[in-house]
Amino acid sequence: MTTSVVIPSFQGARRLEMLLGALAAQVTEVEWEAIVVLDGSTDDSLDVIRRWSSSLPVQVIDLGTNQGRPEALNAGFAAARGEVLIRCDDDLVPGPRYITDHTAHHLDDDAIGVIGLYRNVLPPNDYARVYGEAAHASFLRTVESTPTHSAWRFWAGNCSV
């Protein structure tokens, strides 16, 4: 196993459907696995994962009760078999080279950690137009102007070690 994608999720059935669909579209030669950690979910998340399990290398860890994102991540990383560990929040829809690109940074470089930014896809509503779009644009400007040595501040739902 080369790469493990660890996905913490709480009540994420709808989000997981999109994420797992994007993972199924990966264009990669990398051997990988996905580990979805259900953090007390009571929705249809488990059914969504089971539907994808015949076409994806995905396993599930069900914590039973909500224990918080750090506990969910720790459980997923403990079960991971990969040399490269990718954290992927359940609301991301990664492009087709997501796994390849994260893994390549660790194979071709002395990188210990890789931070991948993401662009929010906001719903076409008043909230997004008034607040969301401006806030996200401001965030991206901040990221682009931040010196590399301070990029650790953006360690979030799309990163790898």
Write up what this structure looks like.
This protein has 161 residues and is of the alpha/beta class. The chain has five helices and six strands. The protein has a six-stranded mixed β-sheet, sandwiched between helices.
Task: List its traits.
161 residues; alpha/beta; 6-stranded mixed β-sheet; 5 helices; 38% helix
Instruction: Strand order, main sheet: write it out.
Output: 3-2-1-4-6-5
Shape: globular
Beta strand count? 6
Radius of gyration: 16 Å
> What about the largest sheet?
6 strands, mixed
Share in β-strands: 15-25%
* Fraction of helical residues: 25-40%
Q: Count every helix, treating DSSP H or I runs of 4 or more residues as helices.
A: 5
> What is the rounded distance between the termini?
15 Å
> What is the mean pLDDT?
89
Helices and strands, in order, run as EHEHEHEHEHE
User: What low-confidence regions span 5 or more consecutive residues with pLDDT below 50?
Assistant: none
Structural class: alpha/beta
